[in-house]
Amino acid sequence: MKKLLLFLFVSAIGYSQSIYRGNVSEKGMPIPGVTICVFNSKRCTTSDFDGNYAIEAKVGDQLQLSFIGMKTKVIRINNTNLLENDEYVNQIVSGDYIEKLKKGNDSLKISKSSGNFEFNLASGIEHYDIMKISRNNDGFYELKNRDQYHKLAFEVSNEFILSTPIRLPKYQKTYAQGRSLNGELAYQSPLTNEIFSWGPNVNSLQYSQNSSQCYPQGDIVNRTSAGANQLQLFDPNNFYQNTEDNKFSFLAQIESPKGNFLKINFGYKTGNIIIPATRNNEITTSLKYFRNITKYSKIEALLSYNDFENNFSNANFGINKVVFANAVTPIHFDNKWGSTLESGLQRSYTALENNPYYVIANNLDTNKSKVLSFNFNQVYSKDRNQNAVNASFQSSEIKNTNGQNFYFAEITAPNFDKRIEKFKNASVSDAFKRIFNNWAFIESKIDFRFQDRKLERNYFSGFASQEDFPDHAANQIKLNVPQERFEVLSNVNGSYTFTNVFSTYSQLVVKGSSGLNYSSTVKSRFMSNYLATVELRRFFNEELWLTISHGYNETEPSLQNNNLNFNSLQYHVNQFKQLQNNLELITRKDGIATNENMTSLDLNYRLSYFWNLTMNYYHKKVNNLYTPVFNQNSISWSPDVNYKQNGIEFAIERMSYLGRDFKYGFNLNFTYYKNEVTVLNNSQARIPFAGFADVNKNYIVGQSLGVIVGSSYLRDNNQNIIIDELGFPVKDSNSKILGDPNPDFVVGFFNSFQYKNFLLQVSFDWSQGGQLWNGTQQTLNYYGKSELTESQRNVTNYVFNGVTESGAANTKAVSFYDTNLPVEQNRWTRYGVDGVAEDAIEDATYFRLSNINLSYSKDFREDNVNKFSFKISVFVNNAFIMAKSKSAFSSNSMFNSIDTTGFDYFNTPMMRSFGSSLTIKF
């Protein structure tokens, strides 16, 4: 606490016109340190220990007196100020403080002083932000400024995002449900279980007077007159709903004068996905406490809780199945009229396909998760020694349900799956650091960890009737897998700096780190790691930094493998409606550690403090990468892949100040990498890890990670497509490599424009090369629902480029859809629902204006202290996209799994988001 001696009167003695002398005191107590200056001059002095001062002045000069606790005052010297020897001026007394002295030690709030000088204490000490003044028994005054009081701060924020689907598939709008019969295009009603839309033009059909459960408007019949009631058409893209996400958060913090604080945070988020009747809710809370125990020690504790619920999680591929059902529905069948018939069966355009609203109404793909965590840190720092102790605990529970309900298309045995995963993790660590000087330190760390995972899964089947579903099953299969892991992680690292190595300001920094870790679940029980780095700073007296490093690290796979989307590898594309997530990846009790060797070279050059250039080259080798491996009806989580990767990353940063109020900056970065599988640690020629049984991403020796393998056209030795006797290309019975999903390079460009309180941020990204698989387009072609089949189904006399089986050039002309032939023989249906995967491979190149964000922020201050501030933002995500593929997007993954990136099979559409946020602090 600061002490303030408030002088209540001033005495002055004048001996001549050139020297003015005085004394400052209170009740006979001298006031040292008062500053006295001749106004508008550089002549200043201060009162000494006894309160005396002397300054050169003359009649008419003004003296400026200033001292902490009073407003700076100006006193004019006139003849009445010039006194005879030993004659003192009369006391100038503040009336407020006379009253203060009468009241003794009571506290006094700051107010404007009275008296001849009208001292205004609030103005005089405003830069100290005084809140309260108290007088001690000894007559001294003590003050408290704002920083010595408890501070209470609040922050409230709200964010709203509205998203709308973009890059949707293009559907045909002309042809009805049906096929060719006896040389004519015939409409086929839902009772025929016709799946195709290869029927007649909808303009040749009309509604009858007889309504039915399938068609409440009237059954569809052939048109009988020109004035008949035309069919109402429906756009499958209108099925989707816009998504709305609303997030509210509240933060309160109280801080003590010593810097200790308690922070409470609460957040609530609610929203929906693009599928109707969906919702998700999330609650986050946290309590954080920080305290300075002593001058050298401080502690921090954080308790947090998260609760999330989703009523449509895609745990059993349900969302993709809904998108599929909507897409293949004929344009004249409105699913919204109802999803259930009076008999309890689906109301669908065919019993072989789903009504999307029926799947939604009977959805079983749900998710609930809860996470509770606690973290404690204690840091001690004195002189050159630092020690940090950390203890943490986390407990989580994830509940999933999924299954296939009664009357789902192609499901003969309804089933229900209940999956509960409980995970607990506790750790205690200690890190000690010794700093020898500005150029060297050494640090050691030891970390004890314990993990416990319990997986319970119950699979129910054998339901006698829909009334029994899902609670009364005849059959139940239980899976109960407990897993534990105990680890001790130890590490020692240090750094030493050599100065003036190559030039005056250059530095050579040598860093090293080494560790030996123990794990109860690794086969050898011990894993090692090390990292060596040499760093040259300010090379040749330039702001040029060169860093060379080499490291080796061994790690284990996580005990939990919540990504269940590898299950689709059990099914072919034509079995899509039967997909189930029923197999688990279990980490071995005595597994092999994954190890990585990596060497990198970094350059950083700063030019004129406005330009910054960085470049990184790296080479790494990874051995024993874990991947799902299928063996008949079982699957294992196996360390069977070795690969290598080389990469270059380059970035340019620029900051410009264009005038006092305008600032511009940008970051341009470039990424290039190439990887290659070197070894498969089993007898398999390839290991598929994502996709379907007949088209998938793979690990293949000599190929890039994740190359796409699928069906193709049969070719001769000269790579000519072989054409069959009917004039159509022959589908090869063997699969082959079709594409590489890895891009050739990626460029990002971020821009920032700031004018006063306005900030505009704009970012672009460009991904060049790579391939993706657009299976959605293939299946829409098969059903006759795509815009492509609308425009090309009447093509005739087309000759495919290729050779016959005898090797002669093909001259056979064909019609893409010959009504005299069965529909299964037309250009697209002849190859099946998945078509020929080779035709579905598309260039993944795209250019995107990924984000635009405009914000305005304002601080309101009082006495140089922030009293209130706010920030408001508006933004757009995925503002503009140009891509080689018209509907698929390489970053839009199938089943919401990163492993399936570059695969599109009725994925949820890409979204363009418009949002706003408001944050208020006070």
TrEMBL record:
This chain's protein is named Carboxypeptidase-like regulatory domain-containing protein
Pfam families linked: CarbopepD_reg_2 (PF13715)
